[in-house]
Specification:
There is one protein chain. By secondary structure, the chain is α/β, with parallel strands linked by helices. The protein has a single domain, classed as Spore Coat Polysaccharide Biosynthesis Protein SpsA, Chain A. The chain is 42% helix and 20% strand. The protein is built from nine helices and nine strands. The strands form two sheets. It has a seven-stranded mixed β-sheet, sandwiched between helices. Strands 6-9 form a two-stranded parallel sheet. Helix 2 links the parallel strand 2 and strand 3. The radius of gyration is 17 Å and the shape is globular. The chain binds guanosine-5'-diphosphate and magnesium ion. Guanosine-5'-diphosphate binds next to strand 1 and helix 3.
Length: 242
């Protein structure tokens, strides 16, 4: 593939039931747009058939490329690995579990006219969200902590649909270190330090699962790490100047 305009990065962990549907959906959305595009699947050490199903799809479709490793490292690591391999001017991260309606993805790309990164927000007035009450409470609670600890002004940092100008983020990615779910917080906090413009967009989501306690604790621990590097060590600020 030579000049690529749009790259998708699709993190996947044990998504054998939905990976092909996700790829088909994205392919369908961009196919008619006369864009040159690629879809980079990052199989994050899945234990099921995610890898073989993604490879099977890629063998039929020249736009799809599969990166795979055996050890599960976390969504942040998967997304970062994929981003570093992209060739497009615009990079879109999208979850592979079909919880989010990916049909609107071109609107996110178009909205880059108004900013450097366009993120889906569950709490945008035009969003349509269905999720268990417990998850809703956890999501709000996490956002309160994110705002308090990082100074972010965003109502939601966590949705797995984000479009960005690659040139604005190429220096940022090597400075990120969170491997799991709090990765998005770190990405947006550092984008803010760089003075990048963040645009929030509505999304349609149907989240079925709640979080496991272990994942939540890890997320909180990672969030404290981000706040400590940001507010106490000024670690990101120093690395930006360097
Ligand atoms: N659970 C989990 N998902 C991962 C991991 N690495 C990549 N992912 C992918 O990241 C996306 C979001 O994960 P998910 O558990 O659905 O998060 P949620 O939507 O916030 O509940 C999915 O496409 C996963 O396949 C990982 O280590 N754990
Ligand atoms: Mg999900």
């Amino acid at each position: 593939m030579s000049q690529v305009e749009l790259s998708f990065v699709i993190p996947a962990y044990n998504e054998e039931d939905s990976i092909e549907i996700t790829l088909g959906t994205l392919d369908g959305v961009v196919k008619n747009k006369r864009l040159s595009y690629e879809i980079v699947v990052v199989d994050d050490g899945s234990k099921d058939k995610t890898r073989s199903r993604a490879i099977k799809y890629a063998n039929r479709n020249g736009h799809v490329k599969v990166i795979s490793y055996t050890q599960n490292e976390g969504k942040g690591h998967a997304v970062r690995t994929g981003f570093m391999q992209t060739k497009g001017d615009v990079v879109v991260f999208a979850d592979s579990d079909m919880d989010i309606d990916l049909g609107t993805v071109s609107k996110y790309v178009d909205a880059l006219e108004h900013g450097d990164i366009v993120i889906a927000s569950k709490w945008h007035p035009d969003s349509v969200v269905s999720m268990p009450l417990k998850r809703r409470i956890l999501s709000h609670g996490f956002n309160v902590l994110v705002r308090l600890l990082t100074g972010a002004k965003l109502k939601d940092t966590q949705v797995g649909l984000k479009a960005m100008r690659k040139s604005a983020f190429i220096d940022i990615f090597p400075r990120l270190c969170v491997k799991r779910y709090a990765f998005d917080v770190e990405l947006l906090a550092v984008a803010n330090l760089y003075g990048l413009k963040i645009v929030q967009m509505p999304a349609q989501l149907s989240i079925r699962e709640s979080f496991r306690l272990k994942e939540m604790l890890k997320m909180f621990q990672d969030l404290l790490g981000i706040a400590y590097r940001l507010r106490v060590l000024h670690w990101y600020q120093r690395r930006i100047r360097a």
